Amino acid sequence: MGHNFMKRNAFWTAHPGHHLLQGPAHCFRGRSMKEALNHAEAALGRQLWVVGTNRTIARSRFSTDKSIDQWYEVEVVPHAADIQTKPTETLAHDHLKTVHKAVSDLEDSGGDPLRLWDVPACLNTPYQYLIRSGVEVVYAERIARHAAACHKPRDLSDDSSAWQAMIDAVADGISVAHRAPIEDGEKRVILVVGPTGAGKTTSLAKMAAHLQLTSEKRVGLISCDMFRIAAVEQLDTYARIMNMPFAAADSAQIVADHVAEIDADWILIDTPGRGPLDDNHLDILRELVDVLNPDEVHLVLPIESAGRWARLTAEKFAVVRPDRLIVTKIDETDRHGGLINLLADLKLPFSYMSTGQNVPQDFYPADPDQIASIIMG
Ligand SMILES: Nc1nc2c(ncn2[C@@H]2O[C@H](COP(=O)(O)OP(=O)(O)OP(=O)(O)O)[C@@H](O)[C@H]2O)c(=O)[nH]1
Ligand SMILES: [Mg+2]
Hints:
By secondary structure, the chain is an alpha/beta fold. The chain contains 12 helices and 11 strands. The chain has 3 domains: 1-111, no CATH class; 119-173; 188-375, Rossmann fold (3-Layer(aba) Sandwich).
């Protein structure tokens, strides 16, 4: 365990001692970093300063085999004559100091000091599979690095063990939200929030059924979605089918009154959907959270929103302090890498996975091994 995803800054970094160097930088390219350096040394000799590195990944839009073309670039400057006036040892010491500083700056900024790492050949097939399933390169590389760190190369020599090592590495990085069993006499309040049509009401109904079945406690439902026509009826219908108390409210105080009055152990509250740019709506939700102080706030996002939109949504919904994530519409995509991106970008543990429209089926508490299997096909 302990696989930690971090957001990485730009891969391309300039050498901190760049200003000491004379002459233009030369760029060399190779299939590996070593090959790029070999080209540089063949052209300019061995006395080189490496001032930058880069790895480029290109996927052909027209290629039928969907293979990934990647190469490495190294930017070098030959040693300048005038800075050689310093004794070599001092130069080497200065150089080392700047490298140490660069590494610690990168670590401080959440960057990746090991950016020259090559994916071992034995892990390349599952690594490329992760990329094709939509996992961002930076996260796929971290997963591969974790898999490599957990095994000796000879243990990964055949395809199935390399594949299994990657599945395990994916599972190691998946954090799931925990929920302590509810005590007698305790009342827990759960809120679902999220953008329009994400699957909040459906997920709330599924969660209600799941809690009733697994905890044998009473569950009550509240809808605060008084704006959308038929929104209240949608949840009320589920409440009637599942024989649960139900109430509707249009202000934070009325919701709080219902929470106090409803005779149930779990109170599940549905909220209206709005886009992340609707600040007024977020203010109303924040007031609700301030008044209720819920035990759990589940942000609901469809898997296909992973990426820029999910990051923006999570950033805006942060005012209502979500502490876990329900991912919906997992059945509507054939690329499940978005699960990794959501987890790594949003840094919220998963609570539930929703895999279809059927209530109460198609809904599972998040499980790292199961999620890893979904991602790895
Ligand atoms: N395929 C699929 N459809 C889903 C899933 N979850 C919800 N839906 C469907 O998505 C649509 C919207 O679901 P709702 O639960 O009403 O979404 P909501 O977030 O409450 O919507 P608003 O309240 O209008 O913001 C419905 O047709 C659901 O059946 C899922 O996991 N898979
Ligand atoms: Mg709804």
